[in-house]
Amino acid sequence: MGKGLDHLDAAGRGTRHEMVLQTALGVSLMFTEGVVSRARDALARASELAEGLQDLDYHLRALASLASFSRRLEDFQGALALAPV
User: Fold this and answer.
1) 5: exposed, middle or buried (C-beta count within 10 Å: 0-12, 13-18, 19+)?
2) Residue 58: CB partners within 8 Å, gap ≥ 6?
3) Distance of alpha carbon 8 from alpha carbon 65, whole angstroms
4) What is the pLDDT of residues 33-84, one digit of tens each?
5) What global pTM score does this model have?
6) How far apart are CA 38 and CA 30, in angstroms?
7) Domains by residue range for the chain, with CATH
8) Burial code of 38-76, b = ≥16 C-beta within 10 A, e = fewer?
9) SS3 83
């Protein structure tokens, strides 16, 4: 996913394709490297893109993964703050 993101041109930024890659990168990093800032950044970017693209499915995936990230850090207030209203 990282290589895919590196090869996105300007036209590919901010698209559904980037959103999917960012989501997959964030989740895979969480499971392979743990709670690293690069994973959080990828998931936050995916959430931001999904919200802008009005893609509820990927927005919820990104939020759920960010909540899981927060729980792993025992940041339960941070996880709760991510809950959709």
Assistant:
1) middle
2) 19, 20, 23, 46, 49, 50
3) 23
4) 999 999 999 999 999 999 999 999 999 999 999 999 999 999 999 888 887 6
5) 0.89
6) 9
7) 2-81 (1.25.40.10)
8) ebbebbbbbbebbeeeebeebbebbbbbbbbbbeeeeee
9) coil
